[in-house]
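User: Structure please.
Assistant: Input sequence and predicted structure:
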Amino acid sequence: MALVLIVEDNPINRDVLGRRLERRGFSIRFAVDGPSGIAEAKALMPDVILMDIGLGEMDGCEATRRICAIPETAGIPIIALTASAFESDRAKALAAGCVDFDTKPVDLPRLLGKLELVLKDRMPASAQGAA
């Protein structure tokens, strides 16, 4: 079961997305802001991080840069989530180190496809054959 860290400051968004992903077999943990997202990434070593870009004092791009700068967490794929669908926001998130970008409200089938792709890339070849 893949462990997903959701970094999201809105409690309703956290709850809804977390429950939807849990129903599809993911193990979910949460962080409520950039600094706790960085701390939880180090403590949990999740398989993937869903990072809200519009966080408070430290936005998701800065948190992503910091997670990518830590040798132990640098390999964790991060998918940016934001209500803004501008190409400049996508470019900013990818430049910060996110491997992909998706918009809110979340289109669950689309997000599940993105999760499947990044998790497939992280699974060892021996485990992919068993899946």
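The chain is about 50% helix and 20% strand.
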